[in-house]
Design a protein that fits this description.
The protein is of the alpha/beta class and about 325 residues long. It contains 11 helices and 14 strands. The strands form 2 sheets. An 8-stranded mixed β-sheet has the order 6-14-13-8-9-10-11-7. It has a 6-stranded mixed β-sheet with strand order 2-1-3-4-5-12, with helices on both faces. Helix 5 packs across helix 6.
């Protein structure tokens, strides 16, 4: 399938990478913003405690000379990602943090070479959303919307750590996802292929030569941080007006940290997503919140949003990794 076909075709299951084993080599990259050295060191220690062999990419701790919100030049960040992915000794690539910058480097990556290297584990969220979409559309690889090793949530929250650890080593044990207070915003049950990420980054991909143009057959996974309700309204309205959500089977919502009082956020979600006429679940516990569960992207899943007020869940029909 060509990229043009993939952008508008109904979503289908993607190639799942192999699960990790003790001793697996993990490259840690910074495709977006810079990460403090002490946080990266602490995150690497956690991975070592799991029996992994984490190796920081050459520019993982760099900062751009003039643009201090970038972890080095675009070309260097793209090269780190590509070199790590194409290195046959590397079993997984995990991002150090988000921030901003992935949109600047995504088109500098040789995606044909990445596709030829075959699937392997890729983990990140936030600004990394554009890379999840690129892996899906340009390589056909399933990825993990999960915590990054230099972030507070990963360093401080045991549940976040355990969700990622279990997904990496024993993915069949964490197929059903959702916090205890997850509920239906729009009740119902839907099946589809998981995709998405940080909703503002999905909107930023619209109109680009490689952006997705259809949600047919997909279960949309969205969350964000630092966006006021009116801004979320604009983002969702842009996605709706563009047709990017046409045919979506259901929507799973995670955290909205720093997006204002949740009552206002919830009103926007109900107003903009309710007319889609599909199940919508809220507060499933992934993204920028105090707990960030790991969500597989590119796999068939069932979204259950009970009308009786019971806990909403997202259940992968296959383990995230082989």
């Amino acid at each position: 399938m060509t990229l043009a076909d993939a952008r508008r075709a109904p979503l289908t299951p993607l190639a799942r990478p192999a699960r990790l084993r003790p001793g697996a080599r993990v490259a840690v990259v910074s495709p977006s913003g810079p990460v403090p050295a002490d946080r990266l060191a602490a995150g690497l220690d956690i991975l070592r405690g799991w029996g992994l062999d984490p190796v920081p990419a050459p520019h993982a701790l760099h900062a751009h000379r003039d643009l201090d919100y970038l972890a080095g030049p675009d070309e260097a960040r793209a090269r780190d990602l590509q070199d790590a992915w194409c290195d046959p000794s590397v079993d997984a690539v995990i991002c150090a943090r988000g921030g901003y910058g992935a949109h600047r480097m995504v088109d500098l990556v040789d995606w044909a070479a990445m596709r030829a290297a075959g699937p392997k584990v890729f983990v990140g969220y936030s600004d990394v959303t554009v890379l999840h979409e690129a892996f899906a559309l340009r390589t056909g690889t399933a990825t993990l919307h999960g915590p990054m090793v230099g972030t507070d949530t990963f360093l401080k929250d045991p549940r976040t750590q355990e969700s990622l650890r279990a997904t990496l080593f024993a993915p069949e044990t964490v197929r059903t996802l959702g916090l205890e207070d997850a509920r239906a915003l729009v009740p119902g049950r839907a099946r589809g292929i998981t995709y998405g990420g940080c909703v503002s980054l999905l909107a930023a991909d619209l109109g680009t030569p490689h952006g997705r143009t259809s949600g047919r057959g997909g279960l949309l996974v969205i969350e964000d941080t630092g966006e006021d309700p009116y801004s979320l309204d604009r983002i969702l309205t842009q996605l709706l007006r563009s047709g990017a959500l046409d045919g979506v089977a259901g929507v799973a919502c995670g955290s909205w940290a720093g997006c204002g009082p949740y009552a206002g956020v919830r009103a926007v979600l109900a107003d903009r997503l309710g007319p889609l006429g599909v199940p919508v679940a809220e507060e499933l516990g992934f993204g920028h919140g105090p707990t960030g569960l790991t969500i597989p992207l590119g796999v068939p899943a069932v979204l259950d949003a009970p009308a009786d007020g019971g806990p909403a869940t997202l259940t992968a029909e296959v383990p995230a990794l082989r």
